[in-house]
Amino acid sequence: MSAPPFLRDCGAESDYRSDRNNIVEDFYLPALAASTAYDRAVGYFAASVIATLGQGIDEFTARGGTMRIIASPYLAPADIKDIENGYELREVLQRAALRDLEHAVEDARAARGLGKLGQLVAENRVDFKLAYIEERGRVGMYHEKIGVFRDGRDVIAFKGSANETRSGLVGNFEAIEVYRSWDPSDTRRAARIGKDFEDLWENRTQILRVIPFTEAAKVIVERSARATADRYELDDLPSGGTPIRTTPLPPPGTLAIPPSLEVRDYQKEAVQNWFHNQCRGILRMATGTGKTLTALSAAAQLGTFLRKNDESASLLTVIVAPYQHLVDQWAKDIEWFGVTPLRAYESTSKWSPRAHSLLQSIALRGTRGGVIVTTNATFGGDAFQTLLSSYRGHFLLIADEAHNLGATHLRTRLPEKAQYRLGLSATPERWFDEEGTEALTGYFDRVVFEMGIGEAIGRGALCHYTYTPILVELDHEEAELYAETSAKIARLIAAGTDLKETADRDSPLGRLLKKRADIIGHAHGKLEILNAELEKRRDTSHQLIYCAEGKHPLLYEHGTDGPRQIDQVMEMVGNELRMPAARYTSETKRSARLDILRRFESNDLQVISSMRCLDEGVDVPASRTAYLLSSSSNPRQFIQRRGRVLRKAPGKERADIIDFVVVPPAGGDAIRYETERSLLRRELARVEEFAFLADNEGDTLNVLRPVRERYGLFDT
After folding, report:
1. Are residues 266 and 451 in contact, defined by beta-carbon separation less than 8 angstroms?
2. 543-546 and 625-628 as β-strands: parallel, antiparallel, unpaired?
3. Of 275, 363, 380, 347, residue with least CA distance to 315
């Protein structure tokens, strides 16, 4: 496109509207190419604004053009609190504006647009300033949207669309009014807008204050210039969009999908299915497929939908997670979505006053929403239930690892007043608890989206893996105790014990089942084999070891004491093999857990040994190898453990799972044949599940052939 010599030759019309024009191509680029000066005042440093600043800049630069940009930083609640606490106002405003810029240039086109201003910045031909309102001790934001093109003779001034959206660079419906100085009907308005900008720039506008920002912005401009120097494909904005507008951040307390988040197709499908089911349902998604981000995307879309139908609508989102460390993990992602959540756990006095203040603020429309994240324990308590009972507005409940809320003491606490409900679980069915499972589906409704591990691997959401089952024989004393415990279990069941007691660890049947599982988990032969396997991978990073809980049942039988399995593993890994390692258990303090995961990811730690704590929700994507010393017959546990190590990470192509499969000792007593056969059947169910999706399925199943032949288990 050849640059028009003067503004009056650029073909500017009196107005532009998305249904009639491509505002960028038809107006912005021709006007900029004909200008020697461009002034722009906008509400925020948003991606769309920054992207358009760089469009057509080559012709503008060649003409010796100069540019002046005024924007208003978005003040987060923390910024306002800093101002109230006496922090230097200029410092807070600059920090907020830099945050806006950093957020904007997460979009590649925005980074390219800002980077193309680098030459003008270096030549002192572009300046940035910040505008804000200061009146009677209150600080507010500047929201006007005007622009002025000049060529030394003529002026084109325009005002942007007042009805703006957050839908990105494409697909917005915008309208601008254009005033041309050479048109007698426009002359006065063009001059007035030009004067308004000059008054702004020179800090002469009542109420408003304007301060310099160029030096602070230089770092981000220069970094964007370096990062996008050869990204020529970003020079053209997509057709169909009208990005000459500011993109205001959503109202305080409302979630918004981050521009840098690539929502996968299957996640979009999950959200759509949930909406089609009146915003109720369960997402049955494999561990590692992004249930958290899918749920937050759904919550953000729900908030947008409610505000579209009622501008004053507010939404309270309550997220319930099993443990405190998962609450902290959720909080990190929620902050990425633009909201600082209220974390409700531990002492009621720490969170209750702030929670009640939040609900009051929502009711009085002081904020448009809020997010509370809490643990199952706090959620089920009277204080939290009283809090929920006082709320009357739009209410979304998200349950992480939703199967836990099917427990008797929690399912009666699920709030009926939550109009919108979303359950998340890789395995929503409760093990041996049909009543609890029915309670979950009765509350959250049906499974509206499902993605198993096989599909997740096929779609690239999880990595491929190899599976190596290693046979570990019980010693004769363990086999004796296993058979004795199984006989007691059989007698209780034959006597009519309710099988629902299998879910109650404190019942006689529950205690026996746990004891039998512990015999398998603590089998003595596992440690010697683990040592050999670790020796093979002594130079391999990112290894997880899942240990059995507690101590070997034989210690209790003999009335003696001894180390836990995890203590023996740590002695082996750290002291004998000299591999940097740490334990991650329920006893590990919360701050230490975060440090352990950080050091593991950076390879300062080679091994993490855990008991259960890594089963639900904890992100350990860097893990490459998992040793399953303990894995119950409960599908939830072994499916979650597999998903934990299949999460994608940079440089990670596949994972290795080493499973310690317990088998009866060779030459066992024929009387115990059926007991031993049942033991194997339970172990083989897990092996079949793991082997089916492994890259080495054939090799895996061959390992088990001799044992299958001995016990006639080719039907398993």
Report:
1. yes
2. parallel
3. 363
Tell me, what amino acid is at 290? G
| Domain 471-665+678-689, CATH | 3.40.50.300
How many alpha carbons fall within 13 Å on the CB side of residue 265? 3
Given a contact cutoff of 8 angstroms between Cβ atoms, the answer to whether 197 and 231 are in contact is no
- Report which of residues 309 and 22 the model is more confident about: 309
What whole-number distance in Å separates Cα of residue 40 and Cα of residue 51?
13
Cα dihedral 453→457→460→462 (10° resolution) = 60
Residue 262 tokens read as: 């690539």
Nearest Cα residue to 566 out of 593, 546, 590, 591: 546
DSSP classification of residue 632: -
CB contact set of 715 (below 8 Å; sequence gap of 6+): none
Residue 345 is predicted with a pLDDT of 92
450 beta partners: 284
How far apart CA 145 and CA 242 sit, in angstroms, is: 14
Topology alike, domains 265-458 and 471-665+678-689: yes
Query: Domain boundaries in the chain?
Result: 7-230, 265-458, 471-665+678-689
Which two tokens mark 533? 């396997």
Closest CA to 301 of 343, 250, 266, 341: 250
CA–CA gap between residue 456 and residue 693 (Å, rounded): 11
Residues 6+ apart with CB under 8 A from 193: 146, 148, 157, 158, 159, 179
Please give the Cα distance from 581 to 607 (Å, whole number). 5
Tens-digit pLDDT profile for residues 268-280? 999 999 999 999 9
Q: How is 99-165 classified by DSSP, letter by letter?
A: HHHHHHTTSHHHHHHHHTTHHHHHTT-EEEEEEEEEETTEEEE----EEEEE-SS-EEEEE--SS--
Q: Please give the pLDDT value at position 18.
A: 66
- Tokens at 79, concatenated: 């910024």
CATH code of the domain occupying 265-458: 3.40.50.300
Going by their DSSP bridges, the two strands 420-425 and 280-285 should be labelled as parallel
Helix and strand numbers (H, E) in the chain are: 29, 22
Query: Quick one: pLDDT at residue 2?
Result: 57
Cα(42)–Cα(438) distance, rounded to whole angstroms? 53
**Angstrom distance (rounded) from CA 52 to CA 33:** 13
Query: Considering only the top CATH level, what class is 7-230?
Result: alpha beta
The phi, psi pair for 703, rounded to 5°, reads -60, -30
Q: Judging by DSSP bridges, how do beta strands 208-212 and 126-135 pair with one another? A: antiparallel
Amino acid symbol at 109: R
Tokens representing 465 are 């893996």
Alpha carbons within 13 A on the beta-carbon side of 588: 20
User: Distance (Å, rounded) from C-alpha 543 to C-alpha 545?
Assistant: 7
Q: Say if residues 618 and 327 touch (Cβ distance below 8 Å).
A: no
Strand partners, 657: 467, 626
The two three-digit tokens of residue 608, written as one number:
């993490």
Q: State the pLDDT at residue 668.
A: 57
